[in-house]
TrEMBL record:
One of its GO terms (biological process) is peptide metabolic process. This is Carboxypeptidase M. InterPro entries: CarboxyPept-like_regulatory, CARBOXYPEPT_ZN_1, Peptidase_M14, Peptidase_M14_domain. PROSITE patterns: CARBOXYPEPT_ZN_1, PEPTIDASE_M14. SUPFAM superfamilies: Carboxypeptidase regulatory domain-like (SSF49464), Zn-dependent exopeptidases (SSF53187). GO terms for cellular component: extracellular space. Belongs to the peptidase M14 family. It comes from Eudyptes filholi (Southern rockhopper penguin). The keyword Acetylation does not apply. One of its GO terms (molecular function) is metallocarboxypeptidase activity. The keyword Hydrolase applies. The active site is at E230. Residues 1-260 form the Peptidase M14 domain.
């Protein structure tokens, strides 16, 4: 990637900067350079969004209430290296250094001993600098919407062949939103009668285990829900098929963006109304291994399905604030439920809190294994107390 930039086009009413209350969304394609369909349909999507603005009321509302980032190619060198288009695997999958970018991110389950590539580092910096809420990365070689986790251990239930995140219900909804709005993905037939995918979706780990993937990195360290979209059985199809791929995916691409408005959002402020960055805000019962925190403007965004939740806001050193919220499907209103938190006794800016890039779930697995005997003792003591009371 010597001297080359990765280009992103940002669309929205305020494309140049983040606006409070407007969620950030992204699509990334072509991280495997020989998987070309996503790259092409994202260019079509840009054209469609720009030309439909102020003509189509739905697209107009979508762009007025969402900041949409589109990166058509994350691996331009790999794309250019694919001299002979092929439906199957080619060397163009890798970047200029021969590295697979979707095995190149820090991993939450094991030490990923790879040297971080310039493309990977650029995307990690991008994730750090924006408050992304929802994302998808576009691939080829299968026809399925695959969701977190791609890797796993006993903590996430991988022993049963499925690696479950705390937001598994939301991920299933996101994957189905895409597959059921796609022309055929929801049928779940897969490619060449190989592995069928019921309803056109799969847990990443259930399909095949993968270390250093981008979607798990987004979810754990970027606070961004990302799924992987496999859009074509043929990785590099003939150009005359591209229009059909666009037609097959057009509705799904739009409906998926709308899901960034699911759930609840708001600001955490101090007694003077100033934003508190790095406050932890999470729904009770679904803690993240790397707690989800407010951004510089004190904002949080939590993707949640309709239902009743208790939202817990915590500023270190102060009593947490709990608020019960009733969430409805807000995607058609293009705004998640708004719930602010004001800490009347706080007048300090919370210190920056970064989450270590170590395999956090590995540590959790070791801790839970070490804790097991202690738990038995605890139960025993409780029983003894009850008996002798």
């Amino acid at each position: 990637l010597k001297g080359r930039d990765l280009w992103v086009l940002v669309l929205g009413r305020f494309p140049t900067h983040h606006k409070i209350g407007i969620p950030e969304f992204k699509y990334v394609a072509n991280m495997h350079g020989d998987e070309t369909v996503g790259r092409e349909i994202l260019l079509h999507l840009i054209d469609f969004l720009v030309t439909s603005y102020r003509r189509d009321p739905i697209i107009t509302r979508l762009l007025n209430n969402t900041r949409i980032h589109i990166m058509p190619t994350m691996n331009p060198d790999g794309f250019e290296a694919t001299k002979v288009p092929d439906c199957y695997y080619t060397q163009g999958r890798y970047n200029k250094n021969g590295e697979d970018l979707n095995r190149n991110f820090p991993d939450a389950f094991e030490n990923n001993n790879v040297s971080i590539q310039p493309e990977t580092q650029a995307v990690m910096n991008w994730i750090k600098n924006e408050t992304f809420v929802l994302s998808a990365n576009l691939h080829g070689g299968a026809l399925v919407a695959s969701y977190t986790f791609d890797n796993g251990n006993s903590v996430t239930g991988s022993l049963k062949g499925y690696s479950r995140s705390p937001d598994d219900d939301v991920f299933i909804h996101l994957a189905k939103t895409y597959s059921f709005n796609h022309a055929i993905m929801y049928k779940g037939t897969g490619c060449d009668n190989r592995q069928p995918f019921p309803e056109g979706i799969t847990n990443g780990y259930s399909w095949y285990q993968l270390e250093g993937g981008m979607q798990d990195y987004n979810y754990v360290w970027g606070q961004c829900f990302e799924i992987t979209l496999e859009l074509s059985c043929c990785k590099y199809p003939p150009a005359d098929q591209l229009e059909k791929f666009w037609r097959d995916n057009k509705v799904a691409l739009i409906e998926y963006i709308k899901q960034v408005h699911l759930g609840v959002k708001g600001q955490v402020t101090d007694k003077n109304g100033n934003p508190i960055p790095n406050a932890i805000v999470e729904a009770k019962g679904r803690p993240h291994i790397c707690p989800y925190r407010t951004n510089e403007q004190g904002e949080y965004f939590l993707l949640l399905l309709p239902g009743t939740y208790v939202i817990n806001a915590t500023v270190p050193g102060f009593k947490p604030m709990l608020k019960t919220v009733e969430i409805h499907d807000s995607t058609s209103n293009f705004s998640a439920l708004k719930q602010d938190f004001s800490f009347s006794e706080v007048s300090i800016r919370s210190r920056a809190a970064s989450c270590p890039k170590t395999p956090l779930y590995q540590e959790l697995e070791q801790a839970s294994a070490a804790v097991k005997p202690t738990l038995h003792v605890l139960v025993l003591t409780t029983v003894m107390l009850v008996i002798f009371k």
